[in-house]
Specification:
Blueprint: E1 6-11, E2 14-26, H1 28-34, E3 46-59, H2 60-67, H3 83-92, H4 102-115, H5 151-161, E4 168-170, E5 181-184, E6 189-194, H6 200-213, E7 223-228, H7 234-242, E8 245-252, E9 255-259, H8 263-273
Parallel strand pairs: 6-7, 7-8
Antiparallel strand pairs: 1-2, 2-3, 4-5, 5-6, 8-9
Helix pairs in contact: 2-3, 4-5
Length: 274
């Protein structure tokens, strides 16, 4: 286990929290003071701090699918998985790590998911990985206690459902991570990154991810867009446009507005990616 590794906390048939390994060290004396000595294995030695701790409520089946395990698998003891499978879990839970704003981020994401309950959801099989984010009674939420990060995935589904039926919708894994949405219109392809808020921090995150993902995709996208649940401020829209990125935002149930960057700025972005 190393600093920066993702840690899942499991129990009662769900993943109830996620975090990132912070400082790690060995100290048998401190460990003995903190925990009861194991009857067979003796004193614990390894101690690590968990940063970016987030409460979740995600059924085992969702994580098992991401890890390539049987959906009925129960996490009986500690298990360590390689980086590829760890990234698969991060992608399927639609988590941005490091987490930008802790509980505030989670609350915004949950609020977005609830607001999108009435919107249509895409029926494209390419988005099957996102189906875990629909609001459901199987995800119990106690105010101030547990939240489910699902708003961004729900926003992606809702937006995809408004696209013409002849548009191929999917996600393409890249060395830089898993983009939220890749679209093939036949004449061109587009790359979309969704955020659960239009606050400036999220606008900047969307820009950074789009710049990172674009060069890794094949073919290189002709257009990039950042998708938000509401309209960002005008300076933030101008910020996206400066880098050739369209701003897309939800204007109501099943209604989205696209504010395109200039053709010149779009072309500069494609040149940068190429």
């Amino acid at each position: 286990m190393h600093e920066g590794d993702v840690v899942l906390f499991t129990g009662q048939n769900e993943v109830w929290a996620i975090g990132v390994v912070g400082y790690r060290f060995e100290n048998a004396s401190l460990a003995a003071a903190m925990w009861t000595t194991h009857p067979d294995k003796g004193t614990y030695r390894h101690i690590y701090a968990v940063t970016q701790f987030e409460r979740l409520s995600v059924p085992y089946a969702v994580v098992n699918r991401a890890l390539g395990l049987k959906e009925t698998n129960h996490f009986q003891s500690m298990a360590v998985y390689d980086a590829e499978r760890a990234q698969a879990v991060i992608d399927v839970l639609h988590l941005d790590l490091p987490a930008p704003h802790g509980k505030d981020y989670a609350a915004k994401d949950l609020a977005l998911a609830l607001a999108l309950e009435g919107d249509k959801k895409s029926t494209s099989p390419f988005l099957a990985i996102e189906q875990v984010y629909t609001t459901s009674t199987s995800y119990q939420v106690s105010p101030g206690e547990r939240v489910v990060l699902r708003g961004e995935g729900t926003l992606v589904q809702a937006y995809a459902a408004t696209l013409p039926g002849n548009v191929a919708v999917g996600r393409q894994p890249t060395p830089a991570g898993m983009p939220d949405l890749c679209l093939d219109f036949g004449s061109h392809t587009e790359l979309i990154e969704a955020k659960s808020s239009a606050d400036r921090t999220y606008v900047r995150q969307a820009l950074a991810q789009l710049l990172h993902y674009g060069p890794e995709l094949e073919p290189t996208p002709a257009i990039a867009g950042a998708l938000f649940p509401e309209r960002p401020t005008q300076p933030d829209i101008a910020y996206l446009h400066r880098y050739g990125i369209d701003c897309i935002y939800r204007a109501g149930t099943d209604r989205y507005v696209r504010l395109p960057a200039s053709k010149k700025a779009r072309a500069r972005l494609v040149d940068l990616w190429s």
